[in-house]
Every structure is written in C-alpha cells, then in structure tokens.
Amino acid sequence: MKKLFSLLSLSALLVFSSCEEDALNDFLGNGTLSESEIAEGLKSALSVGTDTSSAKLGAVDGYFQDPLVKLLLPIATQNAIETFKSKQFSVGFLTISGNTVYNGTSILGITIPGLKSKEDELILGINRAAEAAANQAAPIFIDAITDMSIADANDILFGGIDTAATAYLRNTSYNTLFTTYEPKIDNALQQVTVGGTSISQTYEDFVADYNNTLAIGIPGFGTLGSLMNLQSITVSDLSAYSTNKGLDGLFLKIAEEEQDIRTNPLARINDLLIRVFSLLD
User: Fold this and answer.
1) Quick one: DSSP state of residue 223?
2) In 105-114, which positions are buried (b, 16+ CB within 10 angstroms) versus exposed (e)?
3) d(CA 98, CA 103)
C-alpha cells in the first residue's frame, strides 16, 4: 500500500510539473504561435522601436551629434562645395586654394567673406529642424505599422536577418511615411531659425552667398568663378532632402532597436514580445 501511495504521489507530481512547464512554455512563446500572432509581435517590436528611436533623435543633438544620421547639405550643394575647396588658381605669382577662399581671405586687397562658418550654422539648423520633427514622428510610424499587413511573418522572424521587420516596414510604407512626414519637416525648417532667419531662408541665402563669391572680380584676372572654372548653383529642395535623410535616420535607429529585441530578452518589454521573440532563443 505504501508503494502504491508513493507511485501515485510521484505520478501526480510529474503531471503537475508537466502542466506547470507547459504553461511556462506557452507564456514564453515556446508553444506554437500562429502566423498572425507572430505578425502582431513584429508590429509590437516596430512600435517599441519607433517610440524609442523618435525619442532619441528628437532630443537636442539627437541627429547633430550622431555621425550615422547627421544631416549635411543637399548632395548637389555638398558636391559643389567640395569641388570649390579642391580647386587651385594663380593670381600673378600667388597660388591660392579654393579651401583658403572658402574659409575667407583677401586677394590683392579684395576681401572675400568666408562661407565655412555659414555652412556650419546652416548644418546645425537643419539638424535642429530634423530633431524637432522627430518628436512628431512616432504617431505617423505607429499608424503605418498598425495598417501594415505582414505577409510571411514566419520568414521575417526566422529568416536570419535581424532587421527584417524594419526592412519590411520601409519597403511597404516608405512612400506613405514620406508624404505624411514631409509637412512636419517643412514646418520645422520654417520654425527653426539661425540669427532670426528660418533654416529654409538661411539655405537660400547660403546658395546666394556661394554664387556671389564666384562673381567676385579680381582686377586683371577675372572672377573667382572663371579662375576656378566653376558655375553658379541652384537651390535644392531642402524639405524633400531633409525628409528623406530624417526618415533614413529613424529607420536606422528602429533597426537597431529591432536587433536589440531579437537578441536581448530584457528588451522585450511586454508579454507579446516575450512570447514571439523567445522563439529565437
């Protein structure tokens, strides 16, 4: 009888332990999850990543002090500046570099104001505008994530690419995000100022100053533009440029958050994230 009682007790203990383990496995996500549950987990990861990323980039220096996302001038303007600085020309026996002119100098008594300090102020202003807009990015991204229909959720989760959900969001929602986000960027470019002047106007003034520098004449030698064989430039679409670069930065940071959630159990801050991403452990 004692043996029978012991066997029954042991059986009951094993059944209880098995049920307890099954419940724990289900909670941790080691049980079977449907594709729709995995899709919701991926959306949750993107939402968490968006909240964190927009907060980071929306802080002062969020863009400006991060070399991976820092905004510079539009590409055409950047290229013109780099070409300008790379030039050399001669005035009599004097050889002058474009970089010297860009920083400000005097040639045969002709004072040439530098453009470097103006560029630095403008780049800071563009990044401040991006930071201001980033504070309003989260709801825009959350709406896109909520509306997103995730196909092949299993492939996204288990495909071996630790930023696959972010890439999927970008591929399916970028145009919509751009259209919705650009007004925020454009407004920030109008509201953020340098010396009392909006960033948009400051950029236009900078391009005008660049062209005016090329038009400066050195008596007996011609204009700086002719001496350096350079043409004037036009104003690029600063709003579109800043929107694209601002979104690039947000997607980069969301991808970093996705990587963290995939690899770090402590980053899984809700039950759904725990259930879905523990399948990767």
Assistant:
1) E
2) eebeeeebee
3) 9
Measure the CA angle with vertex 151, ends 47 and 46; round to 5°: 10
Instruction: Answer yes or no: are the C-beta atoms of 33 and 276 closer than 8 Å.
Output: yes
CB under 8 Å to 227, separation ≥6 — which residues? 89, 91, 218, 221
What's the alpha-carbon Rg for the chain, to the nearest Å?
Answer: 29
Side-chain half-sphere exposure of 15, counting CA atoms within 13 A: 6
**pTM (2 decimals)?**
0.87
Tens of pLDDT along the chain (281 residues)? Answer: 444 344 334 344 333 444 444 444 444 444 589 999 999 999 999 999 999 999 999 999 999 999 999 999 999 999 999 999 999 999 999 999 999 999 999 999 999 999 999 999 999 999 999 999 999 999 999 999 999 999 999 999 999 999 999 999 999 999 999 999 999 999 999 999 999 999 999 999 999 999 999 999 999 999 999 999 999 999 999 999 999 999 999 999 999 999 999 999 999 999 999 999 999 99
* 214 token code pair: 């090329």
DSSP letters spanning 78-141: HHHHHHHHH-EEEETTEEEEHHHHHH-EEETTEEE--SHHHHHHHHHHHHHHHHHHHTTHHHHH
DSSP conformational letter for 4: H
Helix H or strand E segment including 24: helix 2-28
Phi-psi region of 104 (alpha: psi -120 to 50; beta: other; left: phi over 0): left
H or E segment at 261?
helix 238-263
Task: Please report where in the chains the tokens 């879905």 appear, as a residue.
Answer: 276
